[in-house]
Amino acid sequence: MSKEDLQLTNKEKEVLGILWSSDEPLIASDIAKADASLNLNTVQAILRKLLSKELIEVADIVYSGTVLTRSYRPLINKRELLLQQFVDHWRNLSINKISIPTIVTTLLEHEKNEDRVISELEELLKERKKLLGKREE
Question: Would you call 34 exposed, middle or buried from its count of C-beta atoms within 10 A (0-12, 13-18, 19+)?
Fold first, then answer.
């Protein structure tokens, strides 16, 4: 996913939020009904943009009354999107030489359960080292 794909407008975030909150794929009119600030034309334009960014997909073709229409579902969850956006921002910052250890240290300083998180990180690092060792073989 390119950097531009991760930069979302507020309306795109709203539509993704509606899709994330639904257990079922939604049609454009259902999305518009879920948020009074969105009209059907806006929703349809946003859906096209999200499709082109490959953040959503057409789940099915369904009837809405007597008309066939597309239903949509997200391809990425909120956590994955936030992590990808974070990594993208970090890559931009890495030009300024902000290292991963510096980021981790700073995050730990703001962590309430620092001991628990450090233990989790140690386990993750052990697993990562094992994976790297297998790659070198």
Answer: middle
Residue 4 pLDDT class (50, 70, 90 cuts): low
Q: Phi-psi region for residue 37, left (φ > 0), alpha (ψ -120 to 50) or beta?
A: alpha
Cβ-based neighbours of 40, under 8 Å, separated by 6 or more: 28, 29, 32
Residue 119: both structure tokens together: 């233990």
Q: What are phi and psi of 122, to 5 degrees?
A: -60, -40
Three-class SS state of 48: helix
Q: What is the pLDDT of residues 84-129, one digit of tens each?
A: 888 887 777 656 677 788 888 988 999 999 999 999 999 999 999 9
Alpha helices in 1-137, H assignment, sequence order: 3-6, 10-21, 28-34, 40-52, 78-94, 100-109, 114-136
- AA identity, residue 57: E
Smallest CA-to-CA distance from 28 within 37, 38, 20, 81 is with 38
| pLDDT at site 61 | 96
